[in-house]
Amino acid sequence: MSQEHYTRRIRSFVLRQGRMTRGQAQAMENLFPVYGLEAGQKLDFREIFDNDQPVVLEIGFGNGESLASMAEQRPGHNFLGIEVHRPGVGHLLQLIEDRELKNVRVMCEDAVEVIEQQIPDASLDGVQLFFPDPWHKKKHHKRRILQPDFVRHIARKLKTGGYFHMATDWEDYAEQMLEVMNHAQDFENTSSDNSFVERPEYRPLTKFEQRGHRLGHSVWDLIYLKK
To answer: What number of CA atoms fall less than 13 Å from residue 127's CA on the CB side?
Structure first.
């Protein structure tokens, strides 16, 4: 892909870095060289994790609490988390160190570019996209990350039988996800009626989600398998 392609591409995020805590800044300085991966060459997961365990990619992990919990509960899987916001990356690095997690690596990059340029085809066992920016104004819907081209990239990177799990608390985004995915020829909906599924046990409830439940807000999960 040419640099011109990335200049023209509509990005699904706006960098709102916010202030990093001292601990997060120290984690970026001291722990990123240990657990972080830089942009550049193709990723060799066997070399990165020093094992052949299944690899799950999480796109936009926020503050990392959910990803760290999943990695702790599923030591037989390797996790690669990609997030553009440095405070969140710093927080996840702290969690990795505090919980002594050996199965997590982190990137502070644009996930779309990493997927296109660095992740080998048919190398992932799962992809997770939890609560992406909904861009709730209709004129901004084109900035939502879940678009047909993006889905085709995900399909190429997943192994046959690998899963693509999405979750959102915006109903119209959930409906868009459902429409896009049900038209994606490379995927099969795990829902018996081609709609949404119950939250699986492996996806932890976030504090934000728990607060939403108390206020009566809904969350929609979608899980598809690569044909």
So the answer is: 28
Q: At what angle do helices 148-157 and 171-182 cross, to 10 degrees?
A: 60
Q: Tokens 């926020």: give the residue.
A: 62
For residues 153 and 184, what is the distance between their CA atoms, to the nearest angstrom? Answer: 11
Q: What is the pLDDT of residue 17?
A: 58
Task: Identify any residues that bridge with 222 across adjacent strands, giving them in sequence order.
Answer: 166
pLDDT for position 136: 64
Window from 14-23, 77-86, 162-171, 187-196 with minimum mean pLDDT: 14-23
50, 56, 60, 64 alpha-carbon torsion, rounded to 10°: -70
DSSP string, 148-178: HHHHHHHHHHEEEEEEEEEEES-HHHHHHHH
* Alpha-helical regions (H) of 31-169: 32-35, 45-49, 65-73, 86-98, 111-117, 148-157
Question: Percentage helix, strand, coil, to 5, in the chain?
Answer: 40, 20, 40
Contact between residue 180 and residue 147 where contact means Cβ atoms under 8 Å apart:
yes
Q: Which residues participate in catalysis according to the annotation? A: 133
Reading phi first (left if > 0) and then psi (alpha if -120 to 50, else beta), residue 62 is in: left
H or E stretch covering 20: none
Q: What is the pLDDT of residue 18?
A: 65
pTM for this one? 0.89
Cβ-contact 158, 127 below 8 angstroms: yes
